[in-house]
Design goal:
single chain; alpha+beta; Archease, Possible Chaperone, Chain: A, domain 1; 4-stranded antiparallel beta sheet; 3-stranded antiparallel beta sheet; 7 strands; globular
């Protein structure tokens, strides 16, 4: 998918931190959710697209797929310190994502301090359609830190 600016609203309440966003397609919603989560850690415009990783996730529900997808990106950061800047899906059908992530390794001097994220559970997600006729999808993701 073509790169575009990520438009999301941050959630910063007493016990909850996260984001909510809307997208014109389910595929775009998953991509934007991953990039919004990354932008919550460091500003996306500080990340260059000079490294590449592949991810494959499958689930039998949309919420489960979103949770697995975001958790794979959290794990990629935990294991490899990788921050995605661009995401391309080579396969997406609502139950399976095969993606290429372009980005770079975290550098504390360049990217600043990052609060550690815990895994994201499906119970911390809301996912749905705002306007059936226009296919506007929405997601709300609460992050445990």
């Amino acid at each position: 998918m073509r790169e575009r600016a990520i438009d999301y609203q941050s959630i910063n309440q007493k016990a909850d931190r996260g984001f909510q966003l809307e997208a014109p397609s389910l595929e775009r919603l998953y991509i934007d959710s991953a990039l919004a989560m990354t932008d919550q850690l460091v500003k996306l415009n500080t990340i260059q697209s000079c490294e590449r990783f592949e991810i494959l996730v499958e689930s039998n529900s949309r919420e489960g797929l979103l949770a697995l997808w975001l958790n794979e990106i959290v794990q990629l950061f935990e294991k490899n310190k990788f921050l995605p800047r661009q995401i391309y899906f080579s396969q997406f059908n609502g139950t399976k994502i095969k993606a290429t992530l372009m980005g770079e390794t975290y550098n504390p001097i360049k990217h600043g301090h990052i609060t550690k994220l815990k895994s994201i559970s499906p119970e911390k997600l809301k996912l749905g359609i705002l306007n059936q006729g226009e296919n506007t999808f929405f997601a709300q993701v609460l992050l445990d830190s």
